[in-house]
Write a structure and sequence with these properties.
Radius of gyration: 15 Å
Oligomer: single chain
Largest sheet: none
Shape: elongated
Number of strands: 0
Strand content: under 5%
Length: 66
């Protein structure tokens, strides 16, 4: 992208990857609920929380850079 440095792309990737983890975690969480697999449900919740954290780190980096 024009005007985007490698550092800006890395920050944006944190946000994108974080959102992807959130989606994957939510899917795993729901599959666990539907199948009664509490381990899958818990692992999904953990991945969801990790994704939120990664997304927030990217947002904080982006705001600090502005």
């Amino acid at each position: 992208m024009a005007g985007w440095s490698d550092e800006n792309m890395a920050i944006k990737q944190d946000e994108i990857k974080g959102r992807g983890k959130q989606i994957k975690g939510k899917v795993r969480e729901e599959v666990g609920k539907l199948t009664g697999d509490r381990t899958e449900q818990l692992e999904g919740t953990i991945e969801l929380v990790k994704g939120k954290g990664q997304k927030e780190i990217g947002a904080i980096k982006r705001k600090a850079k502005e």
